[in-house]
Amino acid sequence: MKFSAVSISTRDIDQSVAFYQNIIGLELYAMSSPFPGQKIAVLKDGEGNSIELVHNENTKPFAGEGIKLSFVVDQIGTAEELMKENSVPVIAMPKTLKNGVKAMIVQDPNGLELTLVEE
């Protein structure tokens, strides 16, 4: 079995696409409206991993609890500055863990927590 994608129900798909493209650095792979009132955007990283952003007028958006995503960054300090410049809510400021890994936690436009990790 191979992991394919994670899907996130969004409040505002355009805002979510802009966040994942411009701040996280994913590439918009596809955008579609398969049914009335529904939009789906697929974004990928350079290794084929995908995030599907889904907006459906008849479905509740993600409540922001119970799921966290992690992204590897080149430098945590640079990531911190990017988050500040773009007014991204920071949940936990960067810190160095016992194993030497540096991490911080931010929040996407849907309330989803994202851990940014410098290995």
From TrEMBL:
PROSITE patterns xrefs: VOC
InterPro entries: Glyas_Bleomycin-R_OHBP_Dase (IPR029068), Glyas_Fos-R_dOase_dom (IPR004360), VOC_core (IPR037523)
Region forming the signal peptide: none
Chain segments annotated as coiled-coil in the UniProt record: none
A Pfam match: Glyoxalase
All residue ranges annotated as the VOC domain in the record: 2-119
Name of the protein: VOC family protein
Organism of provenance: Candidatus Gallitreponema excrementavium
